[in-house]
Amino acid sequence: MSANFEAKKQIVAEIKDKLSRAKSVTFVDYRGLTVEEDTKMRKEFRENGAEYKVYKNRLMLLALNELGITGAEKYLEGTSAVVFGYNDEVTQAKIVCDYVDKTKKLSIKFGLLNGQSVESKEIEALAKLPTKDVLVAKLLGTLLGPVTGLARVLNAPTQGLAIALNAIANK
């Protein structure tokens, strides 16, 4: 086998590894991005636990097919890049959508969420969700609400008695 064939097999294996480790993946068309915009975007992805890579469409398609993900043929044409989100499902989608709005050059082709293919509209909807930390904080607030109310109700008779005794003592 040729060295070129072996190199391509290694790249396909690399893509498969990244796809299997990523919580969410977004495929984008980066046509028209300047080097400066691309560099800023890559840096922001790295800082947020995501990775932006450009691979040949054919190699990405091979990796997707080997993982059993079909239907990507219609999207993987022209200039394509892929963003792997490793920390959570939402962060990389937010960054991609921010750059789509900022640059007006980047466009979302499709994505993968927990191994399932999703349309660009679903990636945009995902980007509008709050981060995991915000959702956990809201859940804790919701769960603590009834406990706090119960504590106030149980404390009310004692507090009322203390106020009444204080009023009698001041007379």
What is the topological layout?
Elements: H1 3-21, E1 24-29, H2 35-47, E2 50-53, H3 57-66, E3 81-85, H4 91-103, E4 107-113, E5 116-119, H5 120-127, H6 132-170
Antiparallel strand pairs: 1-3, 1-4, 2-3, 4-5
Describe what this molecule looks like in 3D.
With 171 residues, the protein is an alpha+beta fold. It has two domains: 3-129, Ribosomal protein L10, N-terminal RNA-binding domain (Alpha-Beta Plaits, 2-Layer Sandwich), CATH 3.30.70.1730; 130-171. The protein has six helices and five strands, in the order H-E-H-E-H-E-H-E-E-H-H. A five-stranded antiparallel beta sheet has the order 2-3-1-4-5. The chain is elongated, with a radius of gyration of 26 Å. The N and C termini lie far apart (102 Å).
- Biggest sheet, open or closed, and with what strands and sense? 5 strands, antiparallel
* Sequence of secondary-structure elements: HEHEHEHEEHH
Per the CATH scheme, the topology name of the largest domain is: Alpha-Beta Plaits
What's the level 1 CATH class of the largest domain?
Answer: Alpha Beta
Q: List the total number of helices.
A: 6
Total domain units: 2
Shape: elongated
pLDDT average, as an integer? 85
Cα(first) to Cα(last) distance is 102 Å
- Helix vs. strand class: alpha+beta
